[in-house]
Amino acid sequence: MKGPAVWLDMDQAELDAAYNQAVYAPNMAEVLQRYADHSEAARAVVGEPLRFVYGDSAIEGLDVYPTARPDAPIAIFIHGGAWRSGRARDYGFPAGLFTRAGAHLVVPDFTAVQDVDGNLMTMAGQVRRAVAWVHANAGRFDGNPGRIHVLGHSSGAHLAGVVLTTDWAGRFGLPPDVIKGGLCCSGIFDLKPPRLSARSSYVRFTDEIEEALSPQRHLGLLTAPVIVAYGTLETPEFQRQSRDFAAAVASAGKSVQLLVGEGRNHFEMIESLAEGKGLLGEAVLGQMGLGNG
Q: Please, what are the domains in the chain?
């Protein structure tokens, strides 16, 4: 029997399921293993990444897969994992495509939310500092600090949205347009509904965090064109979040491209980032002004 509506027309069980990808993606474990396997395969071709430290805690490091092109653009890939899991090493699978096309791929590590008392502000701070470090230190791997793009998937797309709507001048003394383009694939852009869901069992949502880390509420700070993408087999809420975010960006008069992956679920969507003719790989390289390698 359906219970009272908690969010839109969903009762608590429906809302919880709509923010639990495993309910809609029975092959989740298989695809996550593919990420790791394909990352190992990419390293077998392009080599081990350079490893740099961007902060003081043990987790605050990042992998750089360098291209041979001098003064090359930089793609920073923020991985997903429901804010709870994931390591940079398992998200190197797009490295071959990007390095062949003439871009550095940077994959940062950052804390899991449960390891910082459920505080998303800590994660957001780490990712912002990783971006600021890349801007300041791009010359160490022959990168162009004026051509930084930020890519994110799932909870990483939420964090990419936070990066894209950061006051870079006020917070870091950087150019307001330090980010030149973005990809937000299968993300969350307003934290109110996940706050009402079972995710609140491990994320310590507050009014301040909901407001500060809902990218859709800060589009006045967005300076870069954004690609928003989702799959038709994702949960209804993740599909709605992406559609609403793209519509809000367009309504704010900012540049946005909405891509829909037919027949792809949440985890399968990001795999096309490693494909030169894939939905995401082609779109992001195009945004960066590069061929498909």
A: 12-287 (3.40.50.1820)
Q: Which residue has the tokens 């079972």?
A: 198
Q: With the C-alpha atoms ordered 238, 242, 243, 245, is the resulting torsion angle positive or negative? A: positive
Q: Yes or no: say if 103 and 289 are a contact pair by the CB < 8 Å rule.
A: no
Cα 101 versus chain centre, distance:
20
Residue 161 one-letter amino acid:
G
Indicate if the alpha-carbon torsion angle 162, 259, 278, 26 is positive or negative: positive
Q: Report helix, strand or coil for 235.
A: coil
Question: What pairs with residue 104 in β-bridges?
Answer: 74
Paired tokens of 121: 């502000």
Model's pTM, two decimal places? Answer: 0.98
Could you report the per-residue pLDDT of 158-199, keeping only the tens digit for each?
999 999 999 999 999 999 999 999 999 999 999 999 999 999
Determine the Cα–Cα distance for residues 11 and 164; give it in Å rounded to an integer. 32
Is the distance from CB of 55 to CB of 127 less than 8 angstroms?
A: no
